[in-house]
Design a protein that fits this description.
By secondary structure, this protein is an alpha/beta fold. It has 11 helices and 8 strands. The protein has a single domain, classed as TIM Barrel, CATH 3.20.20.70. It is globular and about 45 Å long. An 8-stranded parallel β-barrel has the order 1-2-3-4-5-6-7-8, surrounded by 6 helices. The protein is about 40% helix and about 15% strand. Strand 6, helix 9 and strand 7 form a beta-alpha-beta unit. Bound molecules: phosphoenolpyruvate. The site of phosphoenolpyruvate has 13 residues, from strand 8.
């Protein structure tokens, strides 16, 4: 399966940055063996969709509400994001779990809303540093997957250890490989044979200097890139490191 390199811009980016960060991507991705996705803030989706139109670079959002419409001031529904040009949506990112108290049940409801609106969900899971030190990372991730994925889930998983996000710290290769193998087992248990085909991305301080090694690990189906996706040269180097 082709690897997916997803750039998560988080709460960064004004219209002026689109030219620098998104405009070079269609040409740079034309002959790549990997799929490329950018997830800018929702304010930039329409303008980014115009830049990426006709290219192989996909567009995603960073969250959606679990309802399709209604009295939820300030929120955005999955169908609105689809209408603005998104085809993917990141759900359950650890920053949303921490900042907005998102539980696995909320993530699951959002996955269902995204699927109804024909957005491909990218469900993020991962342990905190305290949980890894307590050696309960497999249990934590198992419970996030069991709680967050509805029956018949068809989307992407991103394994993002919380302690590796934005810190410059990356787990040992063997630890990434072990967690991806564990996630694969849980996906097959949860979803049957379709669990074999879902892409499992690694996310957490992926940089040009470590991308090739991370992307070569077994069961790593791509990368979720935060900070380095805000630097055009770095993101370009990472997409070229993908198999
Ligand atoms: C992320 O937040 O999804 C992420 C991977 O961030 P960073 O690459 O900056 O660690």
């Amino acid at each position: 399966m082709r690897q997916l390199i997803a750039g998560n811009w988080k709460m960064n980016g004004l219209l002026a940055q689109l030219a620098e960060l998104a405009q070079p991507l269609p040409a740079a991705s034309a002959n790549l063996a990997a799929d490329v996705l950018i997830c800018p803030p929702a304010t930039l989706l329409t303008a980014a969709a115009a830049i990426l139109a006709g290219s192989r670079v996909a567009l995603g959002a960073q969250d959606c509400h679990e309802a399709q419409s209604g009295a939820h001031t300030g929120d955005l529904s999955a169908s609105m994001l689809r209408d603005a040009g998104a085809r993917f949506v990141i759900l359950g990112h650890s920053e949303r779990r921490a900042d907005h108290g998102e539980t696995d049940a909320i993530v699951r409801a959002k996955v269902e809303a995204a699927t109804i609106a024909s957005l491909v969900p990218i469900v993020c899971v991962g342990e905190t540093e305290a949980q890894r030190l307590a050696a309960i990372q497999n249990d934590v991730v198992t419970s996030q997957l069991r709680g967050g994925l509805p029956d018949g889930y068809s989307g992407v998983i991103a394994y993002e250890p919380v302690w590796a996000i934005g810190t410059g710290r990356v787990p040992q290769d063997a630890d990434i490989a072990a967690m991806h193998a564990h996630i694969r087992v849980v996906l097959i248990e949860r979803l049957g044979s379709s669990g074999r085909d879902l892409r499992i991305l690694y996310g957490g301080s992926v940089k040009p200097s470590n991308a090739r090694a991370v992307l070569a690990l077994p069961e790593v189906g791509g990368a979720m890139v935060g900070g380095a996706s805000l630097n055009a040269a770095d993101f370009m180097a990472i997409i070229h490191a993908a198999a």
